[in-house]
What we know:
CATH class: Mainly Beta
Order of helices and strands: EEEEEEHEEEEE
Number of helices: 1
CATH architecture: Beta Barrel
Distance between the termini: 20 Å
Shape: elongated
CATH topology: Lipocalin
Strand order of the largest sheet: 1-4-5-7-8-9-10-11
Strand content: over 45%
Largest sheet: 8 strands, antiparallel, barrel
Radius of gyration: 17 Å
Helix content: under 10%
Structural class: mainly beta
Amino acid sequence: MKVPAGTWKVDRAHSSVAFEVKHMMIATVRGHFSSYEGTLEADEDPGRSRAHGRVDAASIDTGSPDRDAHLRSPEFFDVERFPGITFDSTQIQWVEAGLYRVWGDLTIKDVTRQVKVEATVQGAGEDPWGNERVGIAIRGSIKRTDFGLTWQQTLASGGLLVGEEVKLLVDVSAVRA
Length: 177
């Protein structure tokens, strides 16, 4: 399945922007951002399609107010100086069925790096209110230190408190604009 051509806006009420990272190298901490926006300009030729997303870094929520405050601080996202996290696609490639590879510029704390994610079209259709929708699952991972998220604490065992790899889990329900 391909994304139908047109402009699509992310519906925050039916989407999520989440992540996973190892804690103490033995457990996984999950979190999400509650404030974000996104647009997909889909073309019949996926190579001419473009995607843009922006996350409000201060909206981070891991279920722990103390940890969330630390993540908002200058030791991590420094949300006072760098309020937004952005993604702008540079290339979208159709692979097969509903699978796409998407390359783009991810900017966190004024550090921009090229990342690659996989996007899978989950379906498309009309909702009960007459809106055209498309569902897309986006998966990828980044190295947090590549983006200036370098805070770390060494454990007595020699391990590290916060994992290097951050898994990205974005599930989008988008409405035709």
